[in-house]
């Protein structure tokens, strides 16, 4: 599902009186709030859905897939998602 399909699904869930523009604003607001929460608090928990957290990946050695030459991969922050119980039951 891409963002356009997500907006369409949100519009359907909100009902016929909701415009596509309103559904897109609501979707953008939720995504922005999750991003801000991760930047500020480093963790966002959505009960029943799951949780997002910021984790630091250690520096490590890897290789360039084109040249097969070894290289250093620097430490970096990334986002991890852990599915909640209700979401795990779907798949």
Care to give the gist of this entry?
By secondary structure, this protein is an alpha+beta fold.
Please characterize this protein's 3D structure.
This protein is an alpha+beta fold. It folds into 2 domains: 1-40, no CATH class; 42-91, IHF-like DNA-binding proteins (HU Protein, Chain A). The protein is built from 3 helices and 5 strands; from the N terminus they run ααβββββα. The chain has helices at residues 3-14, 20-41, 85-88; strands at 43-46, 50-57, 60-63, 70-73, 76-83. Helix 1 crosses helix 2. The model has no long low-confidence stretch (mean pLDDT 93).
Topology (SSEs and partners):
Elements: H1 3-14, H2 20-41, E1 43-46, E2 50-57, E3 60-63, E4 70-73, E5 76-83, H3 85-88
Antiparallel strand pairs: 1-2, 2-5, 3-4
Helix pairs in contact: 1-2
Order of helices and strands: HHEEEEEH
| Sheet having the most strands | 3 strands, antiparallel
How much of the polypeptide forms β-strand, as a percent range?
Answer: 25-35%
CATH architecture of the largest domain: Irregular
Rounded radius of gyration (Å): 18 Å
Q: Structural class per helix/strand content?
A: alpha+beta
């Amino acid at each position: 599902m891409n963002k356009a399909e997500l907006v369409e699904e949100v519009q359907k869930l909100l009902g016929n009186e909701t415009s596509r523009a309103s559904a897109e604003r609501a979707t953008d607001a939720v995504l922005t709030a999750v991003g801000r929460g991760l930047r500020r608090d480093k963790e966002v928990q959505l009960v029943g859905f799951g949780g997002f957290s910021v984790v630091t990946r250690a520096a490590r050695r890897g290789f360039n897939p084109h040249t097969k030459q070894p290289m250093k991969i620097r430490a970096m922050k990334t986002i991890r998602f852990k599915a909640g119980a209700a979401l795990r039951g779907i798949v």
